Every structure is written in C-alpha cells, then in structure tokens.
Amino acid sequence: MQFLFDRINEFKKIKPFTKHEQLVNAITTSIESKELKRGDRLPSINKMVSEVGFARKTIVKAYEDLKGKGIVESKNFKGYYIADINTKTKLRVALVLYALHTFQEDFYNAFREELGKDYIINVFFHHNNIETFKNIFTRITGRYGMYVVAPIQTPDVKPILEQFPEEKLLIVDRHINLSKKYSYIAQEFENSTYNQLLKLVDDIKKYNEFVLFYRSDSDYPEGVLNAFKRFVKEFDIKFSIKRKYKAGSIAKDKLYFFISDSFLWELLKDSKHKNYVLGDDFGVLAHNDNVIKEIIFGGVTTISTDFKKMAIESANFVKLRKETYKILPSELIKRNSL
Description:
Layout: H1 2-12, H2 19-32, H3 45-52, H4 56-68, E1 72-75, E2 79-82, E3 91-97, H5 102-115, E4 119-125, H6 130-140, E5 146-149, H7 158-161, E6 169-173, E7 183-187, H8 190-198, H9 201-204, E8 209-213, H10 222-234, E9 239-242, E10 254-258, H11 261-273, E11 283-287, H12 291-295, E12 301-304, H13 307-320, E13 325-328, E14 331-333
Parallel strand pairs: 3-4, 3-5, 5-6, 6-7, 7-13, 8-9, 8-10, 10-11, 11-12
Antiparallel strand pairs: 1-2, 12-14
C-alpha cells in the first residue's frame, strides 16, 4: 500500500495540518480517488509507525476518528478496514431512547434536522429493559463517534456508560449520577411537576377526585409520583393511584392524570361513546406535550419539558463537543381539558 504512504508524505508538506489531520486526509483522499475501496485493509498500527514515523497514539486516534464517521471499522485481531466510501459524513451518532413515544419522535425529528444530512444517526430503543439496554451496547460500542443516551435510572447501566470517554457520551432525558463528568441535557420531574400542579390548585379542587395512572414497572418517572403524593396531601385532595385505565370506567367529575398516551386515548374514546364533554364533565391532565394533545378534543392540558429544545441543544453538543450540564424545567401548557 505504498500509494497511501506516498500520500501521507504529500500531506506532511502542508504545514497547517497536524499529524492527525495528515493521516485522516490521506486516507479520505485515497478513498475519493478510488485507490482505497470498501473492504480494503489499512496498514497495521505497527506498519504505519515504521513507515510514517508518527507516534502510535496519533495513528490510533486517526483510525478511531474515521471509525466514528463510519468510514473505517475494526475487526478483532484482524486490523482496520474501509467500511464506507462516503467521506463527507461528519460523524456517526448512536441515539439510544426509551421507545418511539410521540414526544421522543419530536425529539428525533428536531435532532435530525439540527444536525443536518452530513451526520448519520442510528436509533435504538431499550424500552426500559436492562437486558435490552445491555444487548444494544454490546452491538454498538466502538462503532460510533458519539453516543446520545436516555439511560435507565438503575446502577446496572453505570459501568456500561462509564466505559466511554467523556467527549463521546451525552446523557439526555433522564439524569443519572456517574463517576465521570459526563455532559447531560435532562429533565427534573419531582419539583417541576409539583410547581406546575400548584398553578392548578383551584382547577383541581373543582373535581371530586384526582386520579393518577402510574406503573412502577414501566419507564414512568418516580418524581411525578412523588410530586403527586406531596401535592394531594398538602391540599387535602381526594385522590387515587391506578396502574392502568380500565376501558369503560370513565366517570364524571373526576380529573385524570396520565403519563401514558395509550391510556389517555382509551379514556377519550370512552368519553366520546358516553357523550361526556372534556373540560366540563371530566378533566384531563397529561405528561409530555405533543402536537396531538394540542389539537385533540379542543386541547389537553400538559406538564412537559420542551423536547425540541432538548434535541437542538443535544445536536449542538454533538457538533461542538462543548461540555453541557443542563436540567430543563417542565412547564404548564393549559388548554381546554381542565
């Protein structure tokens, strides 16, 4: 592969380029000139050291950066190979989310738009299942230049995440305490939810009962449950907490608080069958806003963070690699349902 060494020597003459840039540019230029093709094996680290004279860590960094763009892949004990000939890709990003909820779809769309077409984004869903989470990271570790992760809030995920360099990992949506100083753009649930409920005290007291649907075995934030309990106790409000909505159980003069959209749609369907009027005969409050809640039945009141803002700030972290430590507040969006 003498042509590659010759090209590296050509880039050595361009003084503004660092040694790392010389290596990366030599490889990408060789791909663009079709001297290197998909599947071709690159020189080993030892061979590059002896032929080019650069330090091992410089060559490893160049290969790893090209791996992050998806241009190069490494195979255990077999070296580095050309995986993709699209040299315009800036970075391959692994986006690991809970599930394809509507609000997480909003996050993805804003994230995709803000990054632009030169970034490759692969999306994975762990569904709050630790085994699924582990399997995802078994498959993707070392294959991406950046990992944007909505973690499961359990100690089991810490060693999985802490294997990554700080500049390659961004925690989003749910915050988790890690030993390293990883960047995060996340929500805070307990105080944010409680503070928004305070704004609704008079509205909530109009109803005979305040009903929260909450499942501890799902990805529901525990902070929402804690805020609800604290609120109803402080204001002496009659309440109940149910695991799920039972079809046909809708009743007048109750206020229903949903975290799951699927339960919300079931209740609204029942209200239509019984000719109950949302906001008059019964009330609805929901977590996590989206465009459907804005328009359906005249609008559903929500307590929600701004997922598009979270996505845009996450994309900027990917592009700029600037340390970010943000907790985004939840806001009350009051509509016709109360």
